[in-house]
Automatic annotation (TrEMBL):
The keyword Nucleotidyltransferase does not apply. Keywords: Glycoprotein, Membrane, Transmembrane, Transmembrane helix, Transport. This is General substrate transporter. Residues 12-463 form the Major facilitator superfamily (MFS) profile domain. It holds the Pfam family Sugar_tr. It is a multi-pass membrane protein. Belongs to the major facilitator superfamily. Sugar transporter (TC 2.A.1.1) family. GO terms for cellular component: membrane. The keyword Membrane applies.
């Protein structure tokens, strides 16, 4: 019996982005727990490179997951690739719950990371391929919101579980990670396949009908459906002529898109916001906040994250991607400089570690009063700027820049870039807190300024363009990035042309021939 299919794109996005919620759950499953007495005692106060290995294990698995996500997605489809990834989440979560030492904990987080590597790269691809051009940003941003809700929910679950005696505190918190995965597994079979993937594998009639179901209530004669289908077919033919293999990622100017897709994800990590997201509990303790006050202060950060990303959900398709990336990087850089400068000028060294029992990762204490308040305030402000700009836009931009033939593997490469730098930062940040303390924030501030310059020079505006139009923007005839503007899509003109054809009662023979040709190829 065939299951009913959901075609409401926002409902589809809410189900698909549970894959993002898995990412968020795993992030805060550690951030709320690493400062608890139960965790510190059971795992023998892990610090420096050991705590870095535990924290970065998720990213290590995600590197592998991202690397294989593209070929898997091209073979079995975007939706089924996400379903396949869920298997490893269930195994990894079971290993974490049963772990007896930090080596087993790392192994479980690596398995969870494999899932996150696939879902973080393929959910944005799936959403970008089913969205209308003018709504693509608001649809893909739901992925970021899902990550943030996952972070918030799991953080306070961990906070609540901290009151449980013994190892049951963190085992209970980690066991709850089964729940969103089970919901995702149940929901995925009800989602449609990507119409662009269907066209790519030669299932043209199914692709056209799915496109019509998503965009026009099933009407394949709708002018928008016809115009968008013609664009898909035209681009698909050009890509078939380009041939298989890795050359297509650099051939005929494609290197520009490969560079943009991969570097935008690298800069998201190098901007340093995830240091705040992962380790605000450490920063709160440096600022003299302890116990429940420190935990609640850190948790409020995650609520702020959601609120401001929610604000951007409303405006994301009304504001250019370039604008948000450039000004976001500059704003984050300013916040890093203030946090680092304040820590550097107003701190006391505590070589044995702050807290009771002492946390070996926190070796400075910021002076109470205005200095400590400034550190907390600008840490919050940095998250606000990040939530409005780089957090959602980097994922959206990375999902937009690829062509149909390279999108799955290309987004896999982009996510791979993200996770390589995420792994490096996660591994070395605890050691950096110990060895260079406040200077870490100065380094991130400089990197943010460099990111803003990079965005201005290399990234054309993609907001409001069809995925097929973006291909031209990166071509040899494309305008310089700083001369590009949002909107101005040629799809509107194509729709008018289709309406004119239909008005003159000209049968849409060309579209029928394209479908037949595609079926014959299949």
């Amino acid at each position: 019996m065939k299951l009913p299919t959901i075609y409401n794109v926002h409902l589809v996005a809410m189900i698909a982005t549970l894959g993002g919620a898995l990412f968020g759950f795993d992030i805060s499953s550690m951030s709320a727990i690493v400062v608890t007495d139960q965790y510190i005692t059971y795992f023998n106060n892990p610090s420096g490179i050991i705590q870095g290995a535990i924290g970065s294990a998720l990213a290590a698995g995600s590197v592998v997951g991202s690397a294989v996500a593209g070929p898997i997605s091209n073979k079995i489809g975007r939706r089924d690739a996400i379903l396949f990834a869920c298997i490893f989440w269930l195994i990894g979560t079971a290993v974490q719950v049963a772990c007896q030492n930090y080596g087993q904990l790392i192994a479980g987080r690596v398995l969870n990371g494999f899932t996150v590597g696939i879902t973080s790269s393929q959910v944005p691809v799936y959403l970008a391929e089913i969205a209308k051009p003018e709504k693509r940003g608001s649809l893909v941003i739901i992925q970021q919101l899902a990550i943030e809700f996952g972070i918030l929910i799991m953080y306070f679950i961990g906070y609540a579980c901290a009151s449980i005696e013994g190892t049951a505190s963190f085992r209970t918190a980690w066991g709850i990670q089964f729940i969103p995965c089970l919901f995702l597994i149940i929901g995925l079979p009800f989602l449609p396949r990507s119409p662009r993937w269907l066209a790519k594998v030669g299932r043209d009639k199914e692709a056209l009908q799915t496109l019509a179901n998503i965009q026009a209530g099933g009407n394949i004669d709708d002018p928008m459906v016809i115009a968008e289908w013609e664009e898909i077919v035209t681009v698909m033919r050009a890509e078939l002529e380009a041939g298989p293999g890795w050359r297509k990622f650099v051939k005929n100017g494609m290197w520009k898109r490969t560079m943009a897709g991969m570097t935008v994800q690298a800069w998201q990590q190098l901007a340093g916001a995830n240091v705040i997201v992962y380790y605000l509990t450490y920063i709160a303790q440096m600022a003299g906040l302890t116990g429940n006050v420190a935990m609640v202060t850190s948790g409020i950060q995650y609520a702020v994250f959601i609120i401001f990303t929610g604000v951007m959900w409303i405006f994301i398709d009304k504001t250019g991607r370039r604008t948000l990336l450039i000004w976001g990087a500059l704003g984050m850089g300013f916040c890093h400089f203030v946090v680092g400068g304040t820590m550097g000028a107003h701190h006391v060294d505590v070589p044995g570690g702050v807290g009771n029992p002492p946390n070996a990762n926190i070796v400075i204490s910021v002076n109470k009063g205005a200095p400590a308040n400034t550190v907390i305030l600008f840490s919050y402000l940095l998250i606000v700027v990040y939530a409005l700009t780089l957090a959602p836009v980097c994922w959206i931009y990375a999902a937009e820049v690829w062509s149909l033939g390279t999108r799955a593997t290309g987004m896999s490469l982009a996510a791979l870039s993200n996770w390589v730098f995420n792994f490096a930062l996660g591994l070395f940040t605890p050691a950096a807190f110990v060895n260079i303390s406040w200077k870490l924030f100065i380094i991130f501030g400089v990197l943010c300024i460099a990111a803003a310059a990079w965005f201005w020079v290399f990234y054309p505006e993609t907001c409001g363009k069809t995925l097929e139009e973006i291909e031209d923007m990166f071509g040899p005839e494309g305008a310089k990035p700083w001369n590009t503007k949002k909107g101005e899509s040629r799809l509107a003109a194509k729709i008018e042309a289709v309406v004119a054809r239909k008005t003159h009662e000209e049968p849409d023979v060309q579209m029928q021939e394209q479908v037949v040709t595609g079926d014959e190829k299949a």
